[in-house]
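Researcher: Please predict.
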Amino acid sequence: MESILEPLTYAFFVKGLFVASLAGALLGFIGVFIVLRGMSYIGHGLSHSIFGGFAAAQLFAAQFYLIGAGLWGIASALAITTVAKRGRVGADAAIGVITTASFALGVALFAKFGTSGPSFENALFGSILGITTEQIIGLIAVTLLTAAFVFLRYRALLFTTFDPDVADVSGVRVGRIEAMLMIVLSLAILATLTVIGVTLVAAMLVIPAVVARMLTDSFGRMLAISTIVGVFSGFVGMYASYYAGVPSGTMIVLVGAVVFVIVLAFTGGRGLRRSAGLDRHVDAPLLTPIGAK
C-alpha cells in the first residue's frame, strides 16, 4: 500500500495523474466517432500534421506555438475533408498526402532552425511532467467543448456517422457536422499532444473505441465504455511510467493494449466479429440512443 501511495506525495505526479486520466477520457470519447466512421487513420495523420504546425509556429511566434499548431491542424483537417469529397481522391489518400507532408515539414524545420519551445523528443513522445497550468486549462476546456458538441449535436452526429447519404437528403448538414467534428478532433489531439506525444496519440483514439465495440452493440454504452477504458489507461499508465521510468505516453498506450488483449481473450470470436466490421458497417442495435436498454 505504501508503494502505491508514495507517488501521491509528489505534486507533479498528482497533476500528471489528473492530466493523463482526462486525456485518456477525451481521446476515448471522441475516438468512438472516428473509428465508427472508418477514419482510424486520420488520428495518426492529424497528429503528424499538427506536429508540422507545432514546428512552424515556433519559428515566427514561439509564445503562441499552440495556437499556431491548432490552426494548422484545423486547416489540415478541413483540407482532408474537402479533397476527399471531390471524389477523385479517397479520404485515406488525402490523409496520407496532406499529413505526411506536414510532418516532414515539421521535421525539416526542427532540423534546420531548431526550436525555442518544447523539445523535439517531448513533441514526439509527450512530457506530462512538464505540462503547464495553461495547458491543463486548455485540456479541460477542450474536454468540455467536446462533450458539449457531442451531446448538443448527438442525433446529427449519429445520423451522419451511420448513413451520411440518407442524412444529407433528410436535411442534415452533413458537411458542416463533419467539419465541426474534424475541428473538435484537431483540438483534442492538440490538447493531448504534450501528454501522449505525436507518435502515440492515434493509438489512444483507436484502442478504447475498439475495446468498447468488442463489448457492446449499443452506441451509448460504447461511448461510456470507451471513455472508461481511456481513463483507466491514463491512470494506470501514469502509475506504471513512474515505476518503470519510461515516458508516460508509452505506458498509457501499452496499458490500453493490455486491456485490448484481455477483452479479446474474454470475448473471443464474438468480439472479433463485432470489431471486424468497424470500417464497413454498424449493426442496427448500435443505433440505440444513450440511456436506452
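Model: The first helix runs from residue 2 to 5.
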